[in-house]
Structure formats: structure tokens, C-alpha cells
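User: Reviewer 2 asked us to show a designed sequence for the structure in our supplementary figure. I'm pasting the C-alpha cells here. Could you produce the per-position amino acids so we can include them in the response letter?
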């Protein structure tokens, strides 16, 4: 049964501004292992990657119905990829839903679907 859906879109220019200003934004949004992926990317891919994770985490918080906050922080949510690059969403280390991420020149967007068996 589908229990939640969430959708989010962000402007790459906004994420780039925040990321250039200081490391604080990416440290708040990315988990340690996501950050390890981030630092290996080119500058352009860094913005896409960070914006995609930000959108995916906001979309997840909408699917859950909580928004980002005490019950569901950016650090509680992790996007992991399989060997082919397909992302999955983990909440507090448990696989908790389906996610799809996209980016264009100006935007990144993500959709999350939560379901129970
Ligand atoms: C829920 C949340 C993710 C919404 O994101 P947003 O960027 O403010 O706004 P969006 O335009 O993407 O989404 C707005 C829609 O989210 C939906 N929404 C709001 N609260 C929601 C909730 N608890 N559950 C599900 N959906 C929710 C609403 O439909 C809203 O549209 P509406 O007001 O027209 O009905 C947001 O409130 C939140 O928790 N943001 C985290 C903020 C943060 O820490 N930012 C870091 C920046 S440094």
C-alpha cells in the first residue's frame, strides 16, 4: 500500500550560493558517506549532487508528512546508490522508500514514494 508521496524542486543557483558561502550548508544536508561522494566530484557535479540530495530529503520529509525538523532531520535521511547508479532512500539507516532524482541546467527535483507491504 502506498502511504506517502513527496515532490521537491530546487534552483541550482540557490544551492550553489549556499555551498560557496561556507561548508555549513552541505555539512547540514549531507551525511558523512554522501559527503565522501560529494568531495570526489567536479565543481559542476557537486552542485547537482548537493541540490539533488537536498530535493530528495525535502521530498522524503513531505512523503512522511513531517517536513524537515526534529522528527526527520537531513542527517536522518541518506540517499544510497546501487552499482548501476539507482538511488534508494534510507531513514535512520533503514531502506524506507523509493526515490527518483533529476537535474537540468537550472533545477534539481526529486520524487519519493513510501509504501508498506
Ligand atoms: C515541508 C518542507 C520540506 C516544504 O518545503 P518548502 O521548500 O518550504 O516548500 P515547497 O514549495 O517545496 O513545498 C510547499 C508544499 O509542501 C507541502 N507541505 C508543507 N508541509 C508539509 C508536510 N508536513 N508534509 C507534507 N507536505 C507538506 C504543502 O503542500 C506546501 O504547499 P502549499 O503550502 O501550497 O500547500 C519544509 O517546510 C521544510 O521542512 N523545509 C526544511 C527547511 C530547511 O531546513 N531548509 C534548509 C535551508 S538552509
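Assistant: Here is a per-position design you can include in the supplement:
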Amino acid at each position: 500500500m502506498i502511504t506517502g508521496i513527496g515532490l521537491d524542486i530546487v534552483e541550482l543557483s540557490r544551492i550553489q550560493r549556499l555551498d560557496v558561502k561556507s561548508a555549513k550548508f552541505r555539512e547540514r544536508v549531507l551525511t558523512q558517506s554522501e559527503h565522501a561522494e560529494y568531495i570526489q566530484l567536479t565543481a559542476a557535479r557537486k552542485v547537482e549532487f548537493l541540490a539533488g540530495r537536498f530535493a530528495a530529503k525535502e521530498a522524503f520529509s513531505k512523503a512522511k508528512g513531517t517536513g524537515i525538523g526534529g522528527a526527520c532531520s537531513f542527517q536522518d535521511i541518506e540517499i544510497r546508490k546501487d552499482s548501476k547508479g539507482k538511488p534508494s532512500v534510507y531513514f535512520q539507516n533503514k531502506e524506507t522508500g523509493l526515490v527518483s532524482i533529476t537535474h537540468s541546467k537550472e533545477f534539481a527535483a526529486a520524487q519519493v514514494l513510501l509504501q508498506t507491504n
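For the response letter, you might also mention the following. Strands lie at 2-11, 77-81, 87-91, 94-103, 107-115. Helices lie at 12-21, 24-29, 32-38, 43-64.
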